[in-house]
Amino acid sequence: MPGIHDLDWPPSGQKPTSSSHAFSQLHDKTLYTFSSHAGLEADGVEERHSVNHESDEDADGQATDPSRTKPKDTELFDLDSQTRNMYFDDKARKIDFILAWSIKPNKKSIEAQRARELFENNLKQEGLELEYDKKGDEIHYAKIHAPYEVLRRYADILKLRLPMKQKLASQHGKKFEDLQSPVQAVSTRLWGAAGRFFKRLMRPFEVDREKVPPIKRTYTCPYSSDKEYLFEIPEDKESLFTNACRSWIVDFILRRKSFSEDKQKAYSFGVKKMISDGYYTAAFPLHEGHWKPGSADNERKLLFDHWAWWKNCFKFQPLDYVRHYYGEKIGLYFAWLGFYTAMLVPASFVGLVVFFYGLAIRYTNVASKELCDTNVNITMCPLCDTQCPYWFLHEACSHAAASRIFDNGATVFFAIFMSLWGTLFLEFWKRNEATIQYKWDLTNFVSEEEPPRPEYLSKLEDWNTMKVNPVTGLKEPHLPFWRRRVPVFLCSYAVMLFLAAVAIVSVVGVIAYRVSMLAALQLIPDVIVTANSSNIKALTVDLVYQNASLVTTVTAALINLVIIIVLNFVSVTFAFWLTDWECLRTQSEYDNSITIKLFALQFVNYFSSIVYIAFFKGRFVGRPGRYNTIFGARQEECEAGGCLIELCIQLAIIMVGKQLIQNNLIEIGLPKLIKLLKRKCSKETREQKLAHTPWEKDYKLEPAANTSLFYEYLEMVLQFGFLTIFCAAFPLAPLFALLNNIIEIRVDASKFITQLRRPIAERAATIGIWYSVLYGISRIAIISNAFIIALTSDFIPRLVYEMRYSPDQSLSGYVNFSLAIFNTSDFERNHQPAPALRGDIQVCRYRDFRNPPWHENKYEYSDVFWHVLAARLAFVVVFENVVVVVTSLIAWLIPDVPTPLKEQIRREAYITSEIVLRTELNRARGEDVIVNSQNGSGDGSGYNSARYSPHNSEDMDRKIRHRQKADDRGDEKSYV
Fold this sequence. Notes:
mainly alpha; disordered C terminus; disordered N terminus; 4-stranded antiparallel beta sheet; single chain
């Protein structure tokens, strides 16, 4: 099974416990191979692109060695880091971290120098070693090295999981190698065959293991310095810890060391606080090498060549390598993004099928034929006051046909499918996340106690109210809840409500534009009549007139997109300002607060205009002779083809336009433009650039801020909202999202590789609050799609007509059935057409279910209206309850953790405890660990693996006592 085959998971012969489990097991087998981005396994990548090796030096000025070959053993992920100057001047001690500070004189120069001296002395007392680079005229650097003893001590403190001795693990695991049921269920064989078929089908997308060998998972357990004999310690002990792990431990120390002689000051410790105060300008680990063509092989270049480069768009992501280089938090983001992209493949396929089905029936539908029949002269009432003429229904033929592409029976199926898809995506992600947690040793991960944010401490440096932290025992500034926090939170969220109101007002402004624009375009016939220009110009003007509604819709959507982009910039600025004003203590509190604010504001900003078209446009217009007005003007009406096509256009322009501007212009084009301008303005020669040290080059890169992943998650979550909340109106949305995400993965990867300093390898076991946001969106989507189908589309009225009013149970006569009759003599004076446009029209039609003028209750809602309304509400209730029940049942049936993985976790815990117990007992007898582990039964485990005994511990004690008695008697019989 791709992604977990190196874990011997699941065991062959594992029997599914239920049909739902069998389906989820098939999903696990196929999805990991189906996606070109999910890439749970770092199995390899596309052939490396050809590079120009004309230069004998790489981008860091280090000589390349063409004879150097890639090492086969990637356990420690150390691809010859000597190719970049990653060491102190003695070429022996590795640089684990860089501190940089400006030497420009300012008011804090003396204070900063004193703080740095105290801080660095504390680091040395902790055991870290420092070396300085003070050759620069503006920036000086301190290089930090963590000796093995320091790493070992903090690995013990932090309970890092490290590999156990492989001989011990393999010997105790032998009993499980051939573990399988003698009789396999038919479903198991079928799912296995299906998994193998999909694996062969996706073979072109699989990675090349020779280029990027898989990183095998080993048995691990929390490190303990007094049990070091259990762990696989290499000859070069410092290579036990990866570079990412070393930098994480050093950062852990840097964030906790004081830079003041007063140890009780809560605001005088940590490198982040020093950067906030300006004592340091940056603190970062070094990249492992350079990524540019011609550079020597290194981890960074490997990731660029086989992950970030565009040639790998349809290859698996080497997630294990990403995790080793950037840490679990960033690795989880790319794993989630790849999994999300993989899940878009079936959604895109179904959306395409629904779209092509709509194309096929757009003119063959009976209702469409009736509407487009030019022989049926149905005169429609004017669409605006005074200036709009009467018009014939067949003039809306093209619009109605376009609407039928998205407004048909397949729309209901697609809405149900996407509701189920959203639930399956979330449930299978939890399973995928559990697998990743196991592979990356995050199953029992517990986040450390968070220190206060440096910005929080800086703002409250002169605050007099202090409180002892019950965890750390340090005095920290305390903000009273009722006197300080409540007023600030009330003001903060009041500003948020104001910004949301501004977004809604902008929608009202776009509505006013549409009304006035449509009215202006209705004057075009006069221009055609009086113009003495060429026929081409007349035809062009006539074309604009015939498509006045379409022109108005498209231009209004583009204007709305521009307004959204501007308001987004304003909302981001205010959201960060308000969150800073709230003065939150920890980084997680800050991140959660900014997440809620920005998501809420951008949700309102992006979706308010779409919600208006979907649920409000044309609902409260009134009727001819008694229109409802706002500020003296009629409200917008839906055309004869309905509002669904306009909703589709609005959704497509905002979604696709956002992706084009956000991804192509801002994320791709803008960095390239800035880089080009810097290159043009730079006066450095090639020799001068090559003379720069690696820390000088990395210092010039953009800092990897805490919010680097925040914007990426926010962008994808909003996209998920477009896909699910309004999927009934735009079945092509998954396809556009898929194409966007294929680019997005490489853009994000390239940004981390080429544009940002190397971030701290932070640990995280989940995607955090974003899962809850996604779950909330999936629930909202069920309600939204139910109302779109019931209210915005014509699906329910057509269904009611077929089942209740059609004489032959078909749509024949539906167009006439759906149009009400109005006597033009009943027009109000200010709403009737101009005298030149009236003609001799006695009766006109309009979309509604009302009584005719000759009825005793003329123009009141007819019985048909109430029948249709009841059907609409019944559909909403049935749709919501059925989908909610089905999705909840699916979520309940699909376990969050795959059953084979549960068994594997329990098995590993059992083997690990057996290894520790056996080794401790052997050591208690004074015997060599490895030698005695090889004695005993043929499987090397010391037990008969044919049958599991629940009394292994008692058996072990009995055998030990038997061995001790044999030793006392001088018996030569070996212990078994």
